[in-house]
Amino acid sequence: MIIYKYGKDVFEPQKSAYTNQEATTKLSASETKILQYLIDNSGEIISREKLLEIGWPDKVVVPNSLNVAIANLRKAFKSKNEIIITIKGAGFTIANNTFVQQHFQPEVIADHEQHSTEQLQPVDHHSDNNNIGANINHTKTTSTAKPLPTMAKIGYGICLVTMFAWVMLWTSSWQSPPCVSVNNQKICGNIELLNLQKLPQDAKSNSTIYIDTTGKMYEKI
Length: 221
Description:
5 helices; 221 residues; 11 strands
C-alpha cells in the first residue's frame, strides 16, 4: 500500500481520498490518477493533453474537464492551493519534494495486531479453599512474556527507516526553493511566475535559473 504525505496531509490513492486537518475528501477516479501522476513526476511540467490522457484514458472529454478536476483537487487541499502550480501556456506541475511517498505492508501490520492480541494473557489466581479459617495463601499471578515475532521486528525497523527518511526529505525541501525541469534546464524559486517565452536562450546546461518574487530570472552556475 502506497500513501503520500505533505506535512500532516495524507493522499491515499487506493482509497481515492485526500485527508487534511479539517476533513477527508473523496476524490473521483480521474482526480486520483491526475494527482498521483503529478506527484510521481514532481518537478516536471505536465501538459494539459497528457493529464487529459491520464485522467480519462481512451475517452474523449471536453478540455474543461481538466479545469474542473484541478479545481476540485485544490478544494481538497483547502488553504494549500499552491500544491498544484499552473504554468501558463505549458501545463501544471508539483514542485520537487512536496510529497513524501511511504510504503506499508499489510501483512506486517496484521502480524503486529495479532501479536498485540496475544500479549493480553489472563491472570490466574490460586487460593487454598480447604483451610479458610487457618491459612490464606497468597494469590499467585502468572504472566507470560513472549519475544517479538520476526515480522513485527521487521515492521518496526521499516517504520523507523521510513520516519527518518521522511524527516530528512522534509528538512531538505524546507531549506531549498521548489524546482522544476524544463528541457533539461533546472529552474527554481517562484516557479508559479515562470514564463517559458522569457527563458534565457543562452543559459548554460549546468546552470540554475532562479525566479524572484517579481518574476525576474537570474542565472547561477
